[in-house]
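hi!! sorry for the late reply, been swamped w classes. u asked for the two structures so here they r. pasted raw, havent cleaned anything up. first the sequence of the first protein and right below it the tokens
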Amino acid sequence: MDNRLIEILEEIQPEVDYETCNDLVDGHYLNSLAILSLIAELEEEYDITIPTVEIVPDNFNSAEGIWNMIQRLQEEE
């Protein structure tokens, strides 16, 4: 996993242990506004476009899930 991803997540919501948390969305650590901010940051940082169909809890419940989505989208572009 990328350290920059952790930094981005910590900027948006600093009180979470992103190494272990697996319920960022389901546990209400990230609300819809935080996710919108996160998507904008990720698209800019990693030069990807996150389509609406990818904005599901499975992709955003953990830093690992987010990282897997980033890698998949980078491969597709």
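now the second protein. again sequence first, tokens right under
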Amino acid sequence: MFENEIDLLKDDVITSTCELVRIPSVLSESSNPSMPFGENCNKALEYMLDLGNRLGFRTKNVDGYCGYIEFGEGDELVGIVGHLDVVPEGENWTYPPFSATISKDKIYGRGTIDDKGPVIASLYAMKVVMETCKITKRVRLILGLNEENDWKCIEYYKKHEEIPSFGFSPDADFPCIYAEKGLLSVFICSPIVKEKIQIVKIDCNQNAINVVPKYCKITLSVDKSISLDDCIHNLQNLVDSHHFSISIHKEFIEKNIFSMNSHGVSAHAAHPDLGTNAISQALVVLYEFFEMYGITNDLLSYFYKNLNLEYNGKSLGIDVQDESGFLTLNVAQLNIQESNLVLGMNLRIPIHTTIDFIKENITASLPSSMAVSFSGEKKALYLPKDNWLIQTLCEVFHKTTGLDATPIAIGGATYARAFPNFVSFGANMPGNKDMCHQIDEFISVDNLMLATKIYTNAIYELCKR
């Protein structure tokens, strides 16, 4: 159904996606109460609301925290919830990350798959249904601006606006997500003790907790009684023995200060095994280097013995897994706070394991000299595979594409868990590499249009219910 109507909109879908991607809507500080997430996030919201108005929808800006685009009549509200904010662009892109460059049937840019392209596909799907079908429900596209951080936008929406009866988020994979792992961010710290080799500065490019870090620079000072050249030589040997991508540089020779610059490959924290962790590499070498000089650092010791280069919970002694997979962890942040060395991790917890169980095990594993705090806690999402919503969306996907439609579980966290009776639904196609949070993020034009067709059929079927 609707194929001809959608094909006629192809140029508009591509143009709108590119225009939205060109807005660098990364969270930023703001003193303007009407732009709580910064000027560029606000520009993205205004762009979408203006586009919605031009396409004939009802729209609302919810105090700058979020907005929505709606059509239809009736008491029941069907929801689609996506986000317009993006993670920082990162480095070494083939094309400028906010240029929305089209090359070989692909639109490149930060947000193309996460989540701007799918949001545009959802909007034009709504347009087709609005203009070709008579429905007895309202359909609302809810637009968040703070999904990549702490979801303040959607919490604000839930306090001030109507909650949909059911719906989906176009922010993961097809055919349909029936389970999303629980989330927990863990921060462990220990005091920095004065030693003959001292960590004086750390720069990890303010890496987001949900991204595998691709860069970490640690600056060290060396007591005058120790040869700086010998230090650099010994550290270089350790780097070479691990075949890590770490470069060493003299900073201030007169003060015996040098740095190690670790380079990795970024990936989404839900799939830490797909990246190369720059912080983990640096800490492995630094622990062995300190050991060579008889220096003990509790946090480095804990990391080396319990985390190292692992990305699963077995290294913490927490060997839990179920149908959603095993416990994964991403060492994401490293910094100095008030004379303490602080390490931040992001965990994705199997759906049948409680977050309290994980907290208890981590706390028990720490030596008395170290402290731990937790944040970013989100309970798992789970709907049985035979749930009517799961079955309906899988059937839509199968009828539209002809592909198998077995629902899947993921480690990512989407807005689907913000509302009852919601699941995540596309837009990444089965078998495609997940480019979410990756360098050279893209969506192919063919998949963008296919997603538009799938969403059109899904909206129609949900409104028939």
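hope this helps!! also noticed smth abt the second:
The first strand starts at residue 58 and ends at 62.
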